[in-house]
Write a structure and sequence with these properties.
The protein is mostly helical. Helix content is about 60%, strand content about 0%.
Length: about 210
């Protein structure tokens, strides 16, 4: 039997007794975030405040359904989001320009994951729902672009050049790419753009 309940802690205090006691027994929690809602990030589910105690069971099911890479994708996405959140807090104190190139690229990677994967439009005929194959393709595409940005930051591509890059094709994939093959095509197009950015950066250094 699956039971879905809702708890609304007074003032959003997740440490109040009823909420804290409930969290001891539930198998998973979707925590809604007021700041995400105010930023018009929907669904406003907090990736840092939510959890599941059934990851191993879900991973086994995904592997049995033909997706053995699910665990690795989830781990990489969660790690990038956590690191991006930490660095965003630093950037708010120090200014993003004070951060090393790789850390600025990590913040960019977090934005790509949030906007290209975690957001969803219920009004879009494509984005309102998503099957597991398309979700896997979207996650793979976003991760590939995010990790390529980190590689470029390590290759001395200026952080500002990365931040100014037009990522709209890959960010629009969740609303425009109907099939996994269409998502893969957008990923390839973004890869070509980033390779061109690296080439232009190296030519500028040589000059």
């Amino acid at each position: 039997m699956t039971i879905i309940g809702a708890v609304s802690p007074a003032g959003g205090d997740m440490t109040e007794p009823v909420t804290a006691y409930t969290q001891r027994f539930v198998r998973s929690l979707w925590s809604l975030d007021r700041d995400l809602a105010y930023a018009r990030h929907y669904p406003a589910v907090s990736w840092s405040g939510s959890f599941s105690r059934d990851i191993d069971a879900v991973a086994a099911w995904q592997a049995g359904a033909g997706d053995p890479g699910w665990t690795g994708r989830r781990t990489r996405l969660a790690a990038l989001l956590a690191e991006a959140d930490r660095l965003t807090s630093l950037a708010e104190l120090m200014g993003a320009a004070a951060l090393p190139p790789r850390e600025r690229a990590t913040i960019l990677a977090g934005r790509l994951i949030r906007e290209g994967l975690l957001q969803q439009s219920a009004l879009s005929p494509v984005d309102a729902s998503c099957d597991s194959a398309r979700a896997a393709a979207l996650a793979d595409a976003i991760l590939a672009v995010a990790e390529r940005c980190l590689e470029l930051a390590d290759s001395s591509v200026p952080p500002a050049a990365l931040e100014e890059q037009d990522f709209s094709p890959i960010l629009r994939a969740r609303e425009e790419a109907v099939t996994p093959d269409a998502v893969a095509a957008l990923k390839q197009d973004m890869s070509v753009r980033l390779d061109d950015l690296l080439r232009r950066s190296q030519e500028g250094d040589a000059g």
